[in-house]
Design brief:
Layout (H helix, E strand, L loop, with lengths): L5 H4 L3 H7 L4 E6 L2 E13 L28 E6 L3 E7 L8 E11 L1 H9 L6 H4 L2 H5 L5 H7 L16 E4 L3 H6 L10 E4 L16 E4 L13 E2 L3
Antiparallel strand pairs: 1-2, 1-6, 2-5, 2-8, 3-4, 4-5, 7-8, 7-9
C-alpha cells in the first residue's frame, strides 16, 4: 500500500483537505486492517482562523501537536468522551490541519460494526439496517469509535504505525468488502459546529463528495469545484 507521508501533508492545508477525499483511513486492530474511504474533511488554518484551536498563536498542552511536522496526528476529545482525528499540514511550526469528518466503511466491516453497535454476532454488518450502516462512520467521532481511535493516537506520525492513510491502489482494492457508494462531484461549503467563530464560520473550508451517503451534513447550496 502507498502510505501518505510528510511530502503529501506538508502543503497548503485546503489543498490537502481536498486531496484527502478518496484516500483510505486505515487502522490495524488485532493484526487486521479496518477502515474506509475518506468522504468529508475540514481545513483549519491556525493563527488567523477563529475556528482553529491554535487561533492567535495559542500554545497549550492540548494543541502542541498542531505545531509538529506535517503528517502528525492531532486527536482531541469532545464532551469528555468522544474523539476527533486531525492530520497536521504545512511546515513544522505552522499550526494548521485537516479534520477527518467522515469515511465510508469498506474494510473490516464486522469489526467496525461491533465497535459501533457492541453487537457480538458474526457478520454483524450484514445484519444492520440501512440506517444503522449509514450511521457507522458518518461523523468525526463516529469514525473514531468505529476504528477505536483515541488519545493513544495523539501526536504520532500517520505512517509506520497502526493508524495511517493510504492512496487508492490495487492492494487497497483487494481489501474492500463491499461495493462502494457513489461519490459524485467534490463540493466545498461552510464547516460544521463553529457558530462561535465570527467571520470564520462562513469560510468554505469543508470538502465532501456530493452524492456519498456517509457525509455527515450536506449543504443546501454547496459550491462545486472545477476539478
Amino acid at each position: 500500500m502507498k502510505v501518505l507521508r510528510e511530502d503529501f501533508y506538508g502543503r497548503d492545508t485546503l489543498t490537502v483537505a481536498r486531496e484527502l477525499l478518496g484516500k483510505y483511513l486505515i487502522r490495524i486492530i488485532d493484526g487486521k486492517y479496518v477502515g474506509g474511504k475518506i468522504v468529508e474533511t475540514e481545513g483549519y488554518l491556525g493563527v488567523n482562523d477563529k475556528a482553529a484551536h491554535a487561533y492567535g498563536g495559542k500554545v497549550t498542552e492540548r494543541v502542541k501537536p498542531m505545531y509538529e511536522r506535517a503528517g502528525t496526528s492531532y486527536v482531541y476529545s469532545i464532551y469528555g468522551m468522544y474523539y476527533c482525528l486531525n492530520t497536521i499540514t504545512e511546515k513544522e511550526g505552522i499550526p494548521q490541519g485537516v479534520l477527518i469528518r467522515a469515511i465510508e466503511p469498506l474494510i473490516g466491516l464486522d469489526k467496525i460494526s461491533i465497535n459501533r453497535t457492541k453487537k457480538k454476532d458474526e457478520k454483524t454488518f450484514e445484519r444492520l439496517t440501512k440506517k444503522e450502516r449509514l450511521n457507522l462512520t458518518s461523523g468525526p467521532s463516529k469514525l473514531c469509535l468505529a476504528l477505536d481511535i483515541d488519545k493513544r493516537f495523539n501526536n504520532v506520525l500517520l505512517w509506520g504505525g497502526e493508524l495511517f492513510i493510504v492512496d487508492n491502489d490495487d492492494e487497497v482494492k483487494k481489501l474492500i468488502e463491499k461495493e462502494a457508494e457513489p461519490c459524485g462531484r467534490i463540493v466545498k461549503s461552510k464547516r460544521i459546529g463553529i457558530d462561535y467563530a465570527e467571520e470564520a464560520r462562513d469560510f468554505l473550508y469543508r470538502f465532501y463528495y456530493e452524492e456519498n451517503p456517509y457525509v455527515s451534513v450536506k449543504d443546501k447550496k454547496p459550491v462545486y469545484l472545477d476539478v
